[in-house]
């Protein structure tokens, strides 16, 4: 029974067949070969994979809703009982966006409607697969002009499944040069919208510092390179800051050394830090949550007790309202007491 904060699959494979004509391939297998990252590369080469297929999905109402619903199905199968999934509404739209993404032609699907479709898909999935799914809307570092819309969408859909704002993308683009991100986060603070920021994944510890101090992030996405600034790390430990870690992802994006035995997550574990284990993008990494847990168990010395502890931390750090958080914690605690020890 797990809690995760993760990224969308961003693709449902049967769709490749239906819309094969607009893709450079005809079969799901060929598509997988093009997009799956098998060996450690760079964050940029990972992000380039989206160019292979996002133009097929963005702007397509049916596809977007179906991906959201099937995402919940997949998480339920992985034993997840609560998930927060993040995506950029603008990157799935083809209208009402400054600079339409993926070289698409202008269409009629706005970021606002994208959020509605995803909410519908997630809700259908929740009812069907009996788990809880919430979403986080991403600002993109290279597109400061979208950030105001993003926070407005967070406000508008606060009671319909959207629980927080995120900032993703190229960490070399810091916020001081892009006041629009700062303004969006200020508005989030003002309106009680929860905040997380991708920081210290490949960018230096200073990006983490900025995320926490300037953007008032309540959780740090990845955060591995926080460890390079000892003072900052100690401070964040003392504050119980939550780190959303993604072991498999960090290896394949080149964010961390490919040798898992020296992974920053081990330091988080030893220091009893507040962190979660997440999948990041399971499609491109051809992975799932079991793979992350297995890796932590086999190569990082994680025990059943630590898995339980980190899931409790995840639930405590979730962006659910207090009452729902309590219910989630109760469910977890009851399940963990019953399962004294499960064979891994
Ligand atoms: C993790 O953060 C949450 C939310 O702030 C808090 O409730 C919890 O006690 C923290 N856990 C640890 C181990 O610091």
UniProtKB/TrEMBL annotation:
Domain spans labelled Adenosine deaminase? 13-334
Q: Which organism is it from?
A: Astatotilapia calliptera (Eastern happy)
- Signal peptide positions are 1-18
* Pfam (any one): A_deaminase
The reply on keyword Isomerase is no
The processes (GO biological process) annotated in the record are:
adenosine catabolic process; hypoxanthine salvage; inosine biosynthetic process; negative regulation of adenosine receptor signaling pathway; purine ribonucleoside monophosphate biosynthetic process; T cell activation
Membrane topology value? Peripheral membrane protein
* Family of this protein: Belongs to the metallo-dependent hydrolases superfamily. Adenosine and AMP deaminases family.
- Gene Ontology MF, one: metal ion binding
Does the keyword Zinc feature in the UniProt annotation? yes
| Name of the encoding gene | ADA
Output this protein's name: Adenosine deaminase
Q: Which UniProt keywords apply?
A: Hydrolase, Metal-binding, Signal, Zinc
Q: Could you tell me where this protein is found in the cell?
A: Cell membrane; Cytoplasmic vesicle lumen
Quote the EC number: 3.5.4.4
GO CC, any one term: external side of plasma membrane
Cofactor(s) in the UniProt record: Zn(2+)
- Provide the taxonomic classification: Eukaryota, Metazoa, Chordata, Craniata, Vertebrata
Q: What class of enzyme is it?
A: hydrolase
């Amino acid at each position: 029974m797990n809690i995760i904060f993760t990224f969308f699959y961003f693709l449902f494979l049967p769709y490749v067949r239906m819309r094969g004509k607009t893709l450079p391939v005809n079969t799901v297998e060929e598509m997988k070969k093009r997009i799956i990252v098998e060996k450690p590369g760079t964050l940029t080469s990972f992000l380039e994979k989206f160019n292979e297929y996002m133009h097929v999905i963005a702007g397509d109402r049916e596809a977007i809703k179906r991906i959201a619903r099937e995402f919940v199905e997949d998480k339920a199968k992985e034993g997840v009982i609560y998930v927060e999934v993040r995506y950029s509404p603008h990157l799935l739209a083809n209208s009402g966006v400054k600079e339409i993404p993926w070289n698409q032609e202008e269409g009629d699907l706005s970021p606002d409607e994208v959020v509605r479709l995803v909410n519908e898909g997630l809700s259908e999935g929740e009812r069907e697969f009996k788990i809880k799914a919430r979403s986080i809307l991403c600002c993109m570092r290279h597109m400061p002009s979208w950030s105001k819309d993003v926070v407005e969408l967070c406000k508008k859909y606060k009671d319909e499944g959207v629980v927080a704002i995120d900032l993703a993308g190229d960490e070399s683009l810091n916020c001081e040069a892009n006041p629009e991100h700062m303004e969006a986060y200020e508005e989030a603070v003002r309106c009680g919208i929860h905040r997380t920021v991708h920081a210290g994944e490949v960018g230096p510890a200073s990006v983490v510092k900025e995320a926490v101090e300037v953007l008032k992030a309540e959780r740090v996405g990845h955060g591995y390179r926080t460890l390079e600034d000892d003072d900052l790390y100690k401070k964040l430990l003392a504050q119980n800051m939550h780190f959303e870690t993604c072991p498999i992802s960090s290896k394949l994006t080149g964010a961390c050394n490919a040798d898992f035995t020296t992974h920053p997550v081990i330091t988080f574990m030893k220091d009893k830090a507040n962190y979660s284990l997440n999948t990041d993008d399971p499609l491109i990494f051809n992975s799932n949550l079991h793979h992350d847990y297995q890796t932590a168990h086999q190569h990082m010395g994680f025990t059943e007790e630590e898995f339980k502890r980190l899931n409790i931390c995840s639930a405590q750090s979730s962006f659910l309202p207090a009452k729902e958080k309590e219910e989630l914690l109760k469910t977890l605690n009851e399940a963990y007491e019953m399962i004294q020890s499960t064979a891994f």
